[in-house]
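User: Amino-terminal enhancer of split-like, Limulus polyphemus:
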Amino acid sequence: MYPNRHPGEGKMPYHCNALHSVLGILEASEGPAPQPGQPFKFTVGDTCDRIKEEFNFLQAQYHSLKLELEKLASEKTEMQRHYVMYYEMSYGLNVEMHKQTEIAKRLNAIIAQILPFLSQEHQQQVAAAVERAKQVTMTELNAIIG
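Assistant: Predicted structure for Amino-terminal enhancer of split-like:
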């Protein structure tokens, strides 16, 4: 980028070296006052002011982008926290569902083993009760849940 610059040359920070180079070019290009019809040439002071304004603008833009990045990073962290919480809840519900399914299977097997030992009248009552138990409605579930 700066072909005349050698590694290690100059102890100024990078942005100072760049400003120094720009000022050197501008000072070398300044000539006599512009004649009518010629484009206006900026003075070193005007150019420095413009560079300073642009630098301040870029610095403000950098600051606002940095704040936005920090905000997005904190939102990302919060979203990850929520994801983990929902995953744990989902896993717990899945385990509980399998547990309840296994309990229902075992209770059904117990009923099937005991049913033949009941009288015909009681067998019909138990069979009807089991069928009613299988017909759970959303209203009943909502009442149970709470």
